[in-house]
Amino acid sequence: MLQGKTAIVTGAAGDLGNAMARQLAQNGAQVAMWDIVPRAQAADAIERVGAQDPAVTYAEVDVRDRSAVDAAIADLAAVDIICSNAGIVEAQPFLELSQDNWQNHLDINLTGCFNVCQAAARRMAADGVRGRLILTSSWVGAIPWPEISAYTVSKAGVNMLVKQMARELAAHGILVNAVAPGIVDAGLAGRQLREEPQYAARVAKVIPLVEPGTPEEIAAAVVYLAGPQTAYMTGSILTLDGGCSLFQFDA
Fold first, then answer.
1. For the packed helices 43-50 and 15-26, what is the interaxial angle rounded to 10 degrees?
2. pLDDT digits (tens, 9 = 90+) for 27-76
């Protein structure tokens, strides 16, 4: 389905990004993995994608560093699909929220998406490529969740960035959409589910479909947004949250 396409996945050493990279490769894309993690520490993640795409590449790229992003884009022979997925979430109650915590979320989760997507869109426009920009948002970009104000605000910004880019890039045939996962059993949320009973109890009450999502489910949605079925779709936030964002009534 994606044969002949080159896809960049940021945050590709993490659970969610690695699932995206693997499924894009399974569907024929040549994958360029980007992450801030040193290559040696990402060896297992690279190997998993390499099992599907022997030509996979890996670059240590900090999405906050625009010059590094531009250089990594320039190193590729082509750019067709972007999965702007790199992000962080670090919980702090609002009254204790530090300036560093706030700024780190905005720098990585929002400005990082801007850097990657603008650099890629410029390349696509120059090459005449009708590309796809796919960002990772979150259900909490529209619904507040306790103790992650910096994260929720950064994802709300991602949602508007998607719509703004979609509006302006349509003239170039570049489609821009996002996936908005709910609570996924991966990364920080996965650790909290295993190690923090209070968090697990809170989660158990807010997912109408009961179970947390999986990285594979989110990655499948990314492949859908990258494929021919969504050639008339732009500016959309595709929510996969098991119903988390639905208003909760007491039974």
1. 20
2. 999 999 999 999 999 999 999 999 999 999 999 999 999 999 999 999 99
Six-digit token string for 87: 């992000």
Q: Which of 151, 199, 224, 232 is catalytic?
A: 151
Confidence of residue 232 (pLDDT cuts 50, 70, 90): very high
* Calpha distance 194→180 (Å, rounded): 23
Spell out a b/e string for 160-197, using b for 16 or more CB atoms within 10 Å of the CB, else e: ebbbebbeebeebebbbbbbbbbbbbbbbbbebbeeee
The whole-angstrom separation of Cα 94 and Cα 153 is 12
Note if 151 is an active site residue: yes
Instruction: Determine how many CB atoms are found less than 10 A away from the CB of residue 27.
Output: 17
Backbone phi and psi for residue 58, each to the nearest 5 degrees, phi listed first: -135, 135
Strands 81-84 and 132-136: parallel
The pTM for the full model equals: 0.96
CA dist 140 and 114 (Å) reads: 19
Which residues face 60 on adjacent strands?
Answer: 35
CA distance 243 to 180: 12
Q: Nearest-CA neighbor of 79 among 26, 116, 38, 35?
A: 116
Which band of pLDDT confidence, cut at 50, 70 and 90, is reported for residue 193? confident
